[in-house]
Design a protein that fits this description.
The chain is mainly α. 76% of the residues lie in helices and 0% in strands. The chain has one domain: Up-down Bundle (Growth Hormone, Chain: A). It is found in: Membrane.
C-alpha cells in the first residue's frame, strides 16, 4: 500500500493541526482568561475582605457599632452602582486594556490605605472610593463578549466567577496567616489584611497594561488567519456587526435595554441573587464565628465551602455552554439554594448549619455566570449589550445593599432568621422567574421563525429575525 493511502499528506495534516478556529480560541483562553480571572479574584477580595478584618478586630479598634459597620458596606455599593453603567459605556472608547488595569491600581491603592485608617470616618472614605473604582469591574464580562461567540461565553465567564468563590477561600487562608502579624511594626492584624492584599492588587494592575489586548484585532499573539476567524465568527454569531456604525453609541440603544422584557426579568433575578451572593461573601466569616468557633478557626473554616463553590461554578458553566441551557442552570442553582438555606433555617445543630454552607454558597455562586451569559447572549448590538450587562450588575450590587442591612443590622447572629427566610423566598422566586423567562424567549424565537429573513434586518440587533435567543 502506498504511503499516501496510509496517512494524509503533510499539508493536510498541517491544515488540521493549525486550523485557525482551534488555535485562536486556545490562545485566547491561555492569554486572557488567567489575567481577567486574577483581576476579578482581587476585586472581590478587596471588596469583601472587610468581613475577615471585622472578626480580626476592625470593628472593635475603630469603635464602630453594628449599624456603622453596615453603613460602611452600604457606601461601597452606592458608588459601585453609580459608576457601573458609565464605565461600561466608555469601556470600548477608552480601551479595556487601559481602563481595567487603571481602575485596578486605583482601588488597590485605596484598599491598601484602609490598613492605616484610625477612625470610622476614614473607613467610610475608603469604602466610597473602592466602590467608585470597582464599578468598572463588570466591564470584564463585556470585554470577554468582544472575544468569544455566545456558545463559548459562559464557560469563560464561569472561570472568573469561580475566582469570586476562590476569593472567599483565599481570603480566609490569607487572613488566618496574616492575623499572626498582629502588632508587627505597630499594625494590628486587620491592618495587615488590607496592607498586604491591597499591595498585591496594585502589582497585578501594573502587569495588566502589558497583558491585555484592546480587541481581537489588536491581539499580538494571534496571526492574521486567527484574527479573521474570530472576527467572522463574532459577526455570524450576531455578537458584532459588519458595519462599525451599527456598534456605535446611540442613546436609543441604551433605552431599548431598559425596556426589554428579558432584561427586566433577568435583572430581578440578578437582584435576588445579589442579596445572597454578597450576604454570603461579607458575612460567612461572621456566620461561622457565631456558630461557636474562634476567630482563627472561623477564618479557616470559610475555605472549604468556597473551594467547592469554585469547582461547581466552573462545572455548571461547562454544562451550560455544552447544552446551551442558561435558564435551566439557574433553576438548578436556585433549588440547591432552597435546600441550603432551608437546612440553616430549620436546624439548630451547628454542624448541620455549617454543612448547609456547602449547598447555599455553591448554589448562589453558580447562578451568577449563567445570568451574565444569558444577558450577553440575548442583547445586540454592542451598546445594547453593554447597557444590558451594566443593568444586571447594577441590580446585583443593589442586592448587596439589602444584604448588608439584612445580615448587619436587621437579622442578628447566630440564627440570622430574617435574612435566611428572605434568601429562601428569593431562591424560590429565582427559579420561577427563570422558568418564565425561558417561556418568553421560546415564544419570541417561534415568532421569529415565522418572519421571512431580511438581510437589512441584522441592524435591528437582537430584534432581528435571524437572531435567536439563548434559553
Amino acid at each position: 500500500m502506498s504511503d499516501s493511502k496510509e496517512r494524509p499528506s503533510s499539508k493536510l495534516a498541517d491544515d488540521v493541526k493549525f486550523h485557525p478556529g482551534r488555535t485562536a480560541w486556545r490562545k485566547l483562553d491561555y492569554r486572557i482568561i488567567p489575567v481577567i480571572t486574577m483581576f476579578y479574584l482581587l476585586s472581590f477580595l478587596d471588596r469583601t475582605n472587610v468581613g475577615n478584618a471585622r472578626i480580626a478586630g476592625l470593628q472593635t479598634d475603630l469603635k464602630m457599632s453594628n449599624k456603622q459597620y453596615t453603613i460602611a458596606l452600604t457606601v461601597t455599593y452606592v458608588t459601585y452602582v453609580a459608576s457601573e453603567l458609565p464605565s461600561n459605556l466608555v469601556l470600548k472608547r477608552i480601551g479595556p486594556n487601559i481602563l481595567l488595569p487603571s481602575v485596578m491600581i486605583l482601588w488597590g491603592l485605596v484598599a491598601t490605605l484602609q490598613g492605616i485608617v484610625t477612625s470610622y470616618h476614614g473607613l467610610l472614605v475608603c469604602r466610597f472610593f473602592i466602590g467608585l473604582f470597582e464599578g468598572a469591574v463588570p466591564g470584564i464580562v463585556l470585554y470577554l463578549s468582544m472575544f468569544y461567540p455566545r456558545r463559548r461565553l459562559q464557560t469563560r465567564i464561569a472561570a472568573f466567577f469561580s475566582a469570586a468563590s476562590l476569593s472567599g477561600a483565599f481570603s480566609g487562608i490569607l487572613a488566618f496567616g496574616i492575623i499572626h502579624l498582629n502588632g508587627k511594626r505597630g499594625h494590628s492584624s486587620w491592618s495587615w489584611i488590607f496592607l498586604i492584599e491591597g499591595t498585591i492588587t496594585i502589582a497585578c494592575g501594573l502587569l495588566g497594561y502589558f497583558l491585555l489586548p484592546r480587541s481581537p484585532a489588536d491581539a499580538w499573539f494571534l496571526n492574521e488567519q486567527e484574527k479573521s476567524h474570530v472576527a467572522e465568527t463574532l459577526v455570524v454569531d450576531g455578537v458584532m456587526s459588519k458595519e462599525l456604525e451599527a456598534d456605535g453609541f446611540r442613546w436609543s440603544e441604551v433605552a431599548k435595554s431598559f425596556m426589554s422584557p428579558q432584561v427586566v426579568l433577568v435583572g430581578i433575578i440578578y437582584f435576588m441573587n445579589g442579596v445572597a451572593l454578597y450576604g454570603l461573601a461579607y458575612f460567612t466569616p461572621s456566620i461561622v464565628a457565631s456558630l461557636g468557633f474562634t476567630a482563627a478557626a472561623a477564618q479557616l473554616m470559610t475555605v472549604p465551602p468556597f473551594v467547592v463553590s469554585a469547582v461547581v461554578t466552573l462545572a455548571a458553566g461547562l454544562i451550560s455552554d455544552y447544552y446551551k441551557c442558561r435558564g435551566v442552570v439557574i433553576i438548578v442553582g436556585s433549588l440547591i439554594c432552597v435546600v441550603g438555606f432551608g437546612l440553616f433555617l430549620g436546624s439548630s445543630n451547628h454542624h448541620v448549619q455549617y454543612g448547609s454552607l456547602f449547598l447555599s454558597i455553591p448554589g448562589t455562586y453558580l447562578i451568577q455566570p449563567a445570568l451574565a451569559a444569558w444577558n450577553a447572549n440575548n442583547s445586540a448590538p454592542y451598546i445594547r449589550r453593554a447597557t444590558t450587562m451594566a443593568i444586571g450588575f447594577i441590580m446585583t450590587n443593589s442586592g448587596g445593599i439589602l444584604a448588608t442591612w439584612l445580615f448587619g443590622d436587621l437579622s442578628p447572629a447566630p440564627r440570622y432568621t430574617k435574612a435566611t427566610k428572605t434568601l429562601l423566598i428569593f431562591s424560590v422566586l429565582m427559579g420561577v422567574l427563570s422558568g418564565l423567562n425561558i417561556w418568553y424567549l421560546s415564544v419570541r424565537n417561534r415568532q421569529k421563525e415565522k418572519v421571512k429573513e431580511d438581510p437589512g434586518a441584522r441592524q435591528l440587533g437582537d430584534e432581528s429575525p435571524s437572531f435567536k435567543y439563548s434559553l
